[in-house]
Amino acid sequence: MKQRFVSNKTGSNNRNFIVSIIVFFIIFGCFSFGISTFSDKASEQEKQTLETAVNRGIAHCYAIEGAYPESLRYLEEHYGLIYDEDRFFIDYQILGSNIMPDVTIIDKEDRQ
Question: Which residues, 6+ apart, have CB-to-CB distance to 77 below 8 Å?
Fold first, then answer.
């Protein structure tokens, strides 16, 4: 006797499980990509903010004292520059007494 109305649910269950796993990994991948992109943009913004703060401190020192700061430490001690030294390296090169110093900021955690 044939069983007309009895179906084999095992194949259907396996297919649903596989589809669920695939959808989960797609959603997880999109979420990870979004977090990574947001983190990269926030890091770049933080570096840009530090660069602006250093340049403003240099200009402020020149406006008040009539000379550019002789070192980065001078900016930290007299003009309140604060930054994460474990994260950023600031190369501060004095070019002359009346020439604005050359400042290069390097993100130590940059993955590029």
Answer: none
